[in-house]
Design brief:
This protein has about 400 residues and is of the alpha+beta class. It is built from twelve helices and 18 strands. The two termini are about 30 Å apart. About 40% of the residues are buried. Bound molecules: ligand EPS.
């Protein structure tokens, strides 16, 4: 990222998750509610584990905000881990006077960072690896993403995601990538999985219940929409400029995400060009001519830059690696074959991952906006965006709908 820099810190059972987001213009209205709403959405979803009953994730600003507005200085946000109260000895900071309080974890879980992390950091106790590798880390991303979403609202941009499938159950709702209103967002937020198909939602519940009974876990697919954005974000001069590359990389950085695509890229690869590319047409306008696209098969990017149509990014999440009926593994202390370590976990967290996906997309798009429009104060940013959109409108190249 160029202008907007995010870093997070925190162990899953340590005292807190922390995020520092730097590069946000001064004067942006920002409240705890802006952040807490998404922290709470990240905790939801049928199939979450016992940890979500312990936590009520709420943020505290430690820096960068004064009297309800950003200062243009690094924003530091803290979210406490309530569960830390149950882990003070195991996760203590001071060196213990006698033996370590808890026995070392020495049996890695297939699919988690345990084994590769132990090799990388020379750790005999896998807890030193899994505490940071835990998806609890995504609390900090969601906090930073909520700041990015608040900034994007100033440019008339919205980011929201929905779940397309959990395990083998898929949504059958039909949507039009050109029209964000073709998704029933109220149904998405009402559903227990973040899915707009009520029937699929009910079958997803059954699938999660069956998986739980079998000691199994489930993955799924989610889709992030971003709409109201102007054309010209990103670039094609250098590899790192391309908006699609930045978006796909950011979404793929979410724990357990193993596949990403822009729109229906994999399906499109099987079709011929005339069936994939969106026609450019003259739109009916009362005052003067303007070009546009009747379809949005490209899902918002052409040539590595936004084209003013909604962005749609899809991501595939693998099943969570911690299984209550564990897979074969090896005890690294005794070098004998045993069953993997069992740690409390979720059956499925696709619903939560889609909120993290929204955060990552918001961070990339907000960063691209700041790259293009700058602005140390939000008024400069608003003015630069408005001037650019005015020029596009006068030339008939794009109009905000
Ligand atoms: C998570 C907290 C964790 C897990 C989950 C995500 O809590 P705990 O490990 O204390 O039960 O529920 O972590 C993982 C899925 C993982 O693979 O590590 C959270 O806050 O999202």
């Amino acid at each position: 990222m160029g202008h907007l820099r995010l870093s997070t810190a925190g162990e899953s059972h340590g005292p807190a998750e922390v995020c520092i987001i730097d590069g946000v213009p001064a004067g942006l209205p920002l409240s705890r509610e802006d952040i807490d709403a998404d922290l709470s959405r990240r905790q939801q979803g049928y199939g979450r584990g016992g940890r979500m009953l312990i936590e009520t994730d709420r943020c505290r600003f430690l820096a960068g905000v004064r009297l309800g507005k950003t200062l243009g200085t690094p924003i530091c946000i803290l979210v406490e881990n309530r569960d830390h109260a149950n882990w003070t000895e195991t996760m203590g900071v001071e060196e213990p006077e006698s033996d370590p309080p808890a026995a070392a974890l020495t049996v890695p879980r297939p699919g988690h960072a345990d084994l590769a992390g132990a090799a990388k950091f020379a750790q005999d106790d896998l807890r030193n690896v899994l505490e940071r590798a835990s998806a609890r880390e995504t609390v900090g991303r969601v906090a930073g993403g909520a700041v990015a979403k608040r900034l994007l609202l100033e440019a008339g941009v919205h980011v929201q995601g929905r779940v397309l499938s959990v395990g083998s159950v898929s949504s059958t709702s039909r949507v039009d990538f050109a029209d964000p209103a073709s998704v029933d967002w109220t149904a998405v937020e009402r559903s227990s999985f973040g899915c707009d198909d009520e029937r699929a939602d009910a079958r997803m519940r059954e699938e999660v219940d069956t998986a739980r009974e079998a000691g199994e876990s489930l993955g799924g697919v989610f889709e992030i929409w971003c709409w109201g954005l102007c054309p010209g974000l990103g670039g094609f001069n250098q590899p790192g400029d391309r908006l699609d590359g930045r978006l796909l990389g950011a979404v793929a950085s979410i724990p357990a995400i193993k596949g990403v695509e822009v729109g229906e890229a994999f399906a499109g690869a099987k079709l011929s060009g005339s069936k994939v590319h969106d026609h450019i047409v003259l739109l009916e306008q009362e005052d003067s001519a303007c070009v546009g696209r009747p379809t949005n098969r490209c899902a918002g990017t052409e040539g590595g830059i936004s084209n003013g149509m909604p962005l749609v990014i899809r991501a595939a999440m693998k099943p969570i690696p911690t299984l209550t009926r564990p897979l074969p593994s090896v005890d690294l202390r005794t070098m004998t074959a045993v069953a993997a370590h069992v740690e409390r976990s979720d059956v499925s967290a696709v619903t939560a991952a889609r909120v993290v996906g929204e955060a990552m997309v918001a961070l990339v798009v907000a960063d691209a906006y700041l790259d293009k429009f700058g602005g140390d104060h939000i008024a400069d940013f608003r003015q630069a965006v408005a001037a650019y959109e005015k020029r596009l409108g006068e030339k008939g190249l794009w109009r905000r709908s």
